[in-house]
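Honest question from a wet-lab person: if I give you the sequences of every part of a complex, can you actually get the arrangement of the whole thing, not just the pieces? Trying it with mine:
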Amino acid sequence: MSDDNPVQPEKDTSPCGCGPGPCCPANTDPEGTRNAPYPENRSSCGSICSCNSPKKESEGEIQTQVHPDTANPPPITPVSGTLSSRDTLGHILARLGQNRSGHRVRPGLYSLGTPGPGSPVIVTANYTLSFDAVRSSVAGRDAYILVLDTKGINVWCAAGKGTFGTDELINRIHNTQLSSVVHHHRLVLPQLGAPGVAAHKVHKATGFHVEYGPVRASDLMEFLRDNVATPEMRVVRFDLRDRVILIPVELRSAALYAVVATIALWFVGGWLPAAGFLAAVLAGTVLFPVLLPYLPTDDFSTKGLFLGIIIAAPFATYAFLTMGLGTPPWVALATVTAILTTLPAITAYLALNFTGCTPYTSRTGVKLEIFRYIPFLAGLAVIGVICAIVTGLTKLLGMW
Amino acid sequence: MTMFNSYTKNTLKFYPEKCIGCERCSEVCPHGVFSAHGERASLQRPERCMECGACQRNCPTGAITVESGVGCAYAMIYSALTGRKEVSCGEDGCCGGSGEQESSCNCGDT
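Yes, you can. This is the full assembly:
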């Protein structure tokens, strides 16, 4: 067990070492046996797997039983509360959006410290950032961590999809024979897992009582000590750190289009439109998350529009001041209009798309925002593009 | 409909006559929408509801209904433009990538 790092996905293609098929009745995940992305190794599956076929094993500890046996529950993987530099590197890569589906932990039961039958059971997702947040937050305490198979997705998003859900929790409790590991019937779930889990159904099916712990893993220690979640622990926040950490992924998702469009604009219209466009994109993806609570109004589109106008103003001013003396007034007007419409529209659109990253926008509200502002933003963009094309074409034709 | 605030209305409905006062709703709500002091819960700040559906799922008597969903403009616009089913966090096309992935939201840190 010591050399087996549970956080690292393994290369084996069979989920349990005994091949696909009905041999793993305990694994109720229909996709799990077909194409398990993080193959569960034999040690985690062997004792709940009813097949006896001797397979070549890569792990050292295969003495576990192959029959369900309450006297010999499945192995519990020991895990440290200290994060290694390798873990930290993994976190950075995850935040950069690198191999986003690959940051997984094998689902199952883990032990932190030397837990006994009275130790708390903390439930989390099999996304490394979630798992690591839990184990590092309760480092120094003896506890069990029950990892659900959420396909490498964090608790909140997985709960919304239902993978951090009632059925998966019930199955995982049975698979790990949790009731023979601890004598209490109490589970601590992250509060943000609640959209996927019906506590009363879990209780009915397993006898385990679900207690929703704090929103943030960093409050877990206090919660376990006092056995109560304060109102502050119950409320989701979206602090500067939470917003800034999302920027790399926002940037990454906009990067390809932005670079291509910037280069194209450079060739067509010179450095000014290229730089203006790039500034508008960066305003929507980098500045907007940082400034979110400080921008006026409540709607994301209007906040973004406000920011976009501030970003566009220097470009419009520069374009106006550097025009030749003989420039016709309508050309000056069209140029300034083009800059002051397209750039804010781009920033506002990106700002509106940030709604999905926040933990407080309702679907009803976002839908209303889309209907209210998208036609307006599209109109702005069309006006701006027409102005730009007209000034460009008339210049080419030598009309001014 | 307040000026420049599209978030004043939502689909949350609470039927107090069905409430048994188990206090689950106030336990799971990340925005303090419910107050659960006394025999029955009450709506304290309904306008702050983000329609995550946690209260509805955890209410044992069905005293709460809400059309839960993800308030993500990207997913809705993408779905409207392509005519495809709306993607959710971690699916193809969500959060600027392809393949299975987590959403960029990090609100599920636990």
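Two things worth pointing out. The first strand of chain B starts at residue 13 and ends at 14. Residues 48 and 81 of chain B are 29 Å apart (CA to CA).
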